[in-house]
Write a structure and sequence with these properties.
- Pfam families: DUF4189.
- Keywords: Signal.
- Residues 32-112 form the DUF4189 domain.
- The protein is built from four helices and six strands, in the order αββαβββααβ.
- It has 141 residues and is α+β, with helices and mostly antiparallel strands.
- It has a three-stranded antiparallel sheet. The chain has a three-stranded antiparallel sheet with strand order 5-4-6, covered by helices on one side.
Length: 141
């Protein structure tokens, strides 16, 4: 066997050994989250899970926490934060690397406060956007 073949074989053997060790460690470091929502007509019911080891567990736990048969997972994230925000009867969902980014992303979907459309139409009640909930995995940036 030539030196090149021996070197290639050594690299392949090292790669096989370390790919199982290091690949698993990286995957195990990921933390997953999910938010589920049920529309109850005049309100919403939420369920959330975070810091789970895989997305399936996060989804199942969020649905279980929600507690209604019409619960639906609306948001999923990995290694960060998930936020629900609302304006009047509208919910929006956003993710981010950290709480501030997730909440900023959600609020930007809802537009300026108070809602300029309602103010220009002469509404006596200005419409304000608000954060409903934010959840972050332990390793969020």
């Amino acid at each position: 066997m030539t030196l090149t073949r021996k070197a290639a074989l050594g690299v392949a053997a090292c790669a096989a050994v370390f790919s199982g060790t290091f690949g698993t460690a990286n995957a195990a470091g990921d933390l997953f989250g999910a938010i589920a929502v049920a529309d109850l007509g005049d309100s919403w019911q939420f369920g959330a899970a975070w810091d789970t080891s895989d997305q399936g567990r996060a989804d199942a736990s969020a649905l279980d926490q929600c507690g209604y048969t019409n619960c639906v997972v609306k948001l999923r994230w990995v290694n960060g934060c998930g936020t629900v925000a609302r304006r009047d009867d509208n919910l929006v969902f956003a993710t981010g690397r950290n709480q501030a980014e997730a909440e900023r992303n959600a609020m930007s979907q809802l537009g300026a406060d108070p809602n300029p459309l309602l103010v220009s139409l002469g509404s006596a009640e200005p419409s304000y956007a608000k954060i409903v909930r934010t959840h972050c995995t332990a390793n969020a940036g």
